[in-house]
């Protein structure tokens, strides 16, 4: 499933590989620190698999190996090349493609795979910090994999300060919007809640156009938190007197959702990070035990047909692109400029400038 | 496809999935053999390079002199000496213990697979600290860093060194230290004590535990200087350090009871664990005797000066010669190509003018 089995040993291939083991094909995208190429494995191992050759500049291999399968790392001249499994679809494409119909069982299956992946990360003391449908990639057999660990970092010491400028705004937890520098796994769970709602609504649940606007939208959707809902919120740096909104029942927004789904969603979207459900508890929630049973991955709807065609239906901030893969590659450029003290970024900058 | 949630299944051993376990765990015998092998190959490289340099500078008439290479024991001693220095530098630069422990692990890993004859142990000492500060989220800017260390290399050189180091440790930056599990055991033993003893006894036992923990932290630091990081898991090292400390603070009986309580379902594993813990305790309590003094290190460093691999030294005659050769070949290729181009062009021109 979202890779809970141990990844295979890299001992034989790691760093001994060369360019000659792989053929570089066309460029599929460009990120803040890396350029992504599609590549092919030369049939040394008697196999021809589409693999992702990334000229990646981050030394995040330990994390990458966990979720999206890292196949190889090698250096050539002053480039560091990470070879990753190539997955050409993501959950955002499926959500946006209105010709794809999906059921409650499908949503349950995707949620299950997302939470398993995340449970694995959290168990390994890793905060993902950039969960969104766009970063949940889909393999051809329907498997969902967490991707884009560019914002991820290790977590363990709750006293250590971290930057609050993480997670794409629509999926950013309220404590981050209020400038919390000490936070935990709960920020990932908030994002999962937003994704859950988005899967049911087929449109981003809380799409703000600025940080303050995002808070307003959250309060409108979930009601302004009281001191009782969220003790300690007034101690956060960014706290201000919120505009008061009543708490509407979630049922009024998500009319078609089942009661167990709503119950789980409410626990993802609790204001108090300490009360918010953990990945492990979410997996044990009765939503996953009740019928309908989650759809087996290979039977999940796929974003079939030309990617470009239905991209045009996309709405919101992101501009439709010719090619889905390209979209994924370029979208992040310059998005998190404020994240200076983070480790991956630093390694990258120093190593390869 | 099995869709039952994983928390119900026995979780896979987390540490066994880490690169530290998969790529950097050895038995003491394997470690020794690997060091011998790396040293032998390194020495052969050095002899070959010296012979080449000799033929470049002196011609082939006289045979090259015999090179006295560093042995693997000497390299180990020299590295140990520099590891002591590394700790001093980390303290001086006010880095915390995780930076120090990671830098030590990088240094050990790098010189496990490479020799000091190829790569200068002094330069890589600094590089390890610098890279470690980034990996452990305590980054200091390169210029500031270079400003604080004696005889710093240029920043370009540093970036180059950092890359070589990264390749040497196979881009595996994540190091699991014994400090974290040690703290975990500290907390768990507290809850064990609270549940196993009547309330009036708690105060006294907690005080004893605190004393043991403080002492164990000292041992854990010693453990990061040893080979234990290659041979034992971080949690075993932590428990072993607690054991060594408990022997000094008269807490061993409680620790035994704690282990028995936690492993009561699996006494066989406890026996194995006890063996591992004894090895760790033995190692950390004898660490002090293994320190290498300055005179010995200076002797080895002197010897090293005469057997540095010239192929790795940009100032050496061999290196310069090779660089010259390369430029010459490149120029020849270019000249050849230019000549061909010229011929082609003139023949084409000939076609049109004819």
From TrEMBL, chain A:
GO function terms (MF aspect): ATP binding; cyclin-dependent protein serine/threonine kinase activity; RNA polymerase II CTD heptapeptide repeat S5 kinase activity; RNA polymerase II general transcription initiation factor activity
CDD domains linked to this entry: STKc_CDK7
Domain Protein kinase span(s) in chain numbering: 22-288
Superkingdom: Eukaryota
Amino-acid positions noted as binding ATP in the UniProt annotation, renumbered to this chain: 28-36
Active site (UniProt): 130
The keyword Nucleotide-binding appears for this protein: yes
InterPro entries in the cross-refs: CDK, CDK7, Kinase-like_dom_sf, Prot_kinase_dom, Ser/Thr_kinase_AS
Example GO BP: positive regulation of transcription elongation by RNA polymerase II
Gene Ontology, cellular component aspect: chromatin; cytosol; transcription factor TFIIK complex
Keywords, ordered alphabetically: ATP-binding, Kinase, Nucleotide-binding, Phosphoprotein, Serine/threonine-protein kinase, Transferase
Enzyme Commission number: 2.7.11.23
Stored SUPFAM superfamilies: Protein kinase-like (PK-like)
Chain segments carrying region Disordered: 294-353
One Pfam family recorded for the sequence: Pkinase
Top EC group: transferase
Family: Belongs to the protein kinase superfamily. CMGC Ser/Thr protein kinase family. CDC2/CDKX subfamily.
Name of the protein in its database record: [RNA-polymerase]-subunit kinase
Organism: Spizellomyces punctatus (strain DAOM BR117)
TrEMBL record, chain B:
Pfam families per the UniProt record, alphabetical: Cyclin_C_2, Cyclin_N
Regions of compositional bias (Basic and acidic residues) in chain numbering: 323-347
Domain Cyclin-like, chain residue ranges per copy: 84-167
Annotated region described as Disordered, given as residue ranges: 311-354
Keyword Ion transport: no
Domain of life: Eukaryota
The UniProt record lists the keyword Translocase: no
Xref: InterPro entries: Cyclin-like_dom, Cyclin-like_sf, Cyclin/Ssn8, Cyclin_C_2, Cyclin_N
Key words of the record: Cyclin
Biological processes per GO annotation: regulation of transcription by RNA polymerase II
Gene Ontology MF terms in the entry: cyclin-dependent protein serine/threonine kinase regulator activity
Coiled-coil regions listed in the entry: none
Family: Belongs to the cyclin family.
Name of this protein: Cyclin ccl1
Annotated source species: Spizellomyces punctatus (strain DAOM BR117)
